[in-house]
Design a protein that fits this description.
By secondary structure, this protein is mostly helical. The chain is built from two helices and no strands. The radius of gyration is 33 Å and the shape is elongated.
Length: 97
């Protein structure tokens, strides 16, 4: 039938088995370092702990600061838009040529 090969059921079963084995071996190779670290007797370096008293290490501010900024930003944009409209109404009409 125009160069198409009729595939048997055993081909699909073998192909599925090969895929499963390949994925399993890949996962085993990828996860083996994690298993080795879990079996070691201690971490080679002490874990870094965030500084106490700060909302976010390295800046960024708190959630409430972010919300205040958002609230003020939309007010500032609204004021700027209104000022633009006022300027456009008061501007003299451009001469027609």
């Amino acid at each position: 039938m125009f160069g198409m090969v009729k595939l048997t059921q055993s081909f699909w079963e073998d192909s599925m088995k090969r895929t499963f084995v390949t994925i399993s071996i890949g996962a085993l190779i990828a996860l083996s370092p994690l298993a080795a670290m879990a079996q070691s007797e201690g971490s080679p370096q002490p874990l870094k702990v965030a500084q106490a008293g700060t909302a976010h290490t390295g800046g960024g501010g708190s959630h409430s600061r972010h919300m205040r900024h958002r609230a003020n930003t939309h007010k500032e944009r609204a004021r700027a838009g209104a000022e633009h409209i006022r300027q456009m109404r008061m501007a003299p009409a451009a001469p027609k040529s």
